[in-house]
Write a structure and sequence with these properties.
Length: 263
């Protein structure tokens, strides 16, 4: 899988008396097989706009996006989105929520339940198949959302602040779970977060974006998720001098951008 974002800009047109918004400018980004790319940046720098472009919810004003050399022209089963608010169907139970993407694709009932059950088990939700989703905790609902995204076997998972609504402990556990699923499934991931620590821990590559208009100003290759997956404890990785140095470097970049926006 190779996603190519080539010189892409987005301008939202003027509306309701407000001027046009230059949301992204000249974005160049490649996401390859098994890469975990994390986007970080001050609020309004265009992270969600970039995710919406990849998902095909939005077309670029200029530039090109291709997935395995084919232009991205709209949403498709090769890209699955996990949102912060789980976007689950409250009147369905866990099994039907997880199987929903396959139902939309017209997969027969027995086959879609078989696939859904595999991912329910992978996400640690076995036994909850018949539970209505509104009865589950936030962390469990998020796992249902991830299981649903995985059932369609996408080439790339697009995650927009998926863990933002979770408490600190659940969030750390969910980070570790996502990393082990990513490691096993070999999917590519594009992941948005506001947490510098989460970004550094999860990604194989970090892009830092600046607002007005949104640009990629810095990119870092990251070793930390591999260290965790090779057996180092997550807290130990996050407390290592290498991690802390990079965290401070990235925080400086983001604070400078936020101050520039505020002035
Ligand atoms: N539909 C729209 N019409 C006009 N402007 C928009 C629209 N969607 C987003 N914007 C503007 O484009 C810019 C980028 O928005 P976007 O949501 O992509 O940023 P973000 O980095 O994801 O922000 P946050 O971190 O706050 O979620 C912002 O200034 C936002 O107000």
């Amino acid at each position: 899988m190779r996603l190519n974002i080539d010189d892409v800009s987005v301008v939202y047109p003027a509306s309701d008396g407000r001027p046009p918004v230059a949301a992204l400018s000249k974005i160049m980004l490649e996401i390859g097989d098994s890469e975990f790319v994390v986007a970080l940046g001050a609020s309004g720098c265009g992270k969600s706009t970039l995710l919406n472009l990849i998902a095909g919810f939005l077309a670029p004003t200029s530039g090109r996006l291709t997935l395995d050399d084919a232009p991205v022209r709209g949403p498709g089963a090769d890209r699955a989105v996990v949102f912060q608010k789980h976007a689950l169907l409250p009147w369905f139970d866990v099994l039907d929520n997880v199987a929903f993407g396959l139902q939309v694709q017209g997969v027969a009932l027995a086959a879609r339940y078989e696939t859904a059950n595999r991912f329910i088990e992978l996400l640690g939700l076995d036994g909850f198949q018949k539970s209505p989703v509104y009865k589950l905790s936030g962390g469990m609902q998020q796992r249902v959302g991830i299981a649903r995204a995985l059932t369609c076997d996408p080439k790339i998972l697009l995650m927009d602040e998926p863990l933002g609504a979770l408490d600190a402990l659940t969030r750390e556990k969910a980070q570790e779970l996502i990393l082990s699923i990513w490691n096993e499934s070999n999917k590519s991931v594009f992941f948005i977060t506001h947490s510098v620590e989460e970004a550094l821990f999860m990604g194989t590559k970090l892009i830092v974006m600046s607002p007005r208009p949104g640009r990629i100003t810095h990119a870092f290759d990251l070793p930390f998720s591999r260290q965790f997956l090779a057996g180092s404890p997550a807290r130990g990785v996050k407390a290592s001098p290498e991690f802390i140095n990079l965290r401070e470097q990235v925080l400086k970049i983001i604070f400078a951008d936020e101050e520039a926006v505020a002035t």
